[in-house]
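Please go through the protein record below and see whether the fold suits the sequence. Record follows.
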Amino acid sequence: MKKKTVLALMVMCMAFSVTACGDKEESSTPAAESSSEETAEETAEPAAEEPEEEAEEAGDDAKESETGESARLVSVDNVEDYVTIGEYKGLELDNIVMPVSDEDVESEIEFRLQDSSVEVADGTLEQGDFATVNFTATIDGNEFDGGTEENYEFYVGDSGQAEGFDSGLIGMKKGESRELTITFPEDYYDPAVAGKTAVYTVTLQKFTRTPELTDEWVAANSEVKTVDEYREAVKKELEDNANEMASYDLYATAWSVVLDASEVKEFPQEDIDAARQAYMDLNDQYIAEAGMDLNSFLESQGMTQEEYEDECTRYAEAKVEQNLIVQGIMDKEGLSLDDKETQDLEKRLVQEYGVTDVNEMAELYGQQEVNESLALLRVEKFIVDNATIDQKVGGGDELAENEDALTEDAAYDTELEGDTAGDYSEEYMEEDMISEEMPEEDMVVVE
């Protein structure tokens, strides 16, 4: 994308029920859950205050139709007339859990120690500290490219500067300045300074030091008392995270298998029109926030009006296809947005998105989006619960020998440990559509 534009089109799959996007249809538009989520939170109008009990009732009513039945995702009752749903029970799926090594545990502990580093006010700089310096370097009295930095932060021992820079700073105090004479090697990567001698004037702004892993530190920074207990606790956390990530992949894979095996016979036009309009309205919101109109935005993207119209249609068809399949499975299996399993998923979504309740979620994203997300998660859970799951260790073909992954009934606990409704297809993330100025933290990376 061109600079100084908002990634309006990265909301192709909206904030919630978007797993289907790009699985069967190619698209030239990326999707980014985090950005759309943040913008929605920033721009949402404050909701009028209402008693908590009334708010809960309003949320319940929003999930029901006028007839009192659970809300539906599509306008048609005879879903089977519109889609042929692939086999979704009795699937054979692999749950691949990445193993946690001792090295992983030590790396995580080191990261946590570094994260708790404290600034040193009176001591002197040592190897392994984190330093912030200002420096100016000259060659024959002249400054050169890359020879001047302010607030340069680095790990002492791995500054990225020429050899002798880090060691020359050892023993400095906060606020102290020091002059270093450094000769660049003949084979230095920058030929402009290779083989030349530079004089660095360096001022140590501040530095922090990583604490040692001791029983005292453990007791002050965790719920356990000893280093050995802490290592075991960290390993357990990493193993739980690995199982959680495997669960995400398992649910996404289960849905993909069913989606790939299904085929739409005909799209309900009412649903296509509604999805298309909702998508265009959301894009218009982002474009307006960028201070542009649709024509100027499309021009900045090198996209014609016809291409944009086609993109809107592809999005709508992918969304409606997903809704048809999900609703069809729910109808056949008697699943509901009001059953206990869905309520558990609802609580999880509320927690994952950092909102107080589903009413706030609905205010941010719309009740239809919330319903679609919950329904998709409910169906994914049903597919996994009715599948044969092979437990495997990541990187190998052997079954995972993880007793903690088994329930008392010797069945794998496939309880969803998070929101998979925001997963995006890699095929949907066209690299050439990602903005040059889009920060890494706003990008969605699909494993």
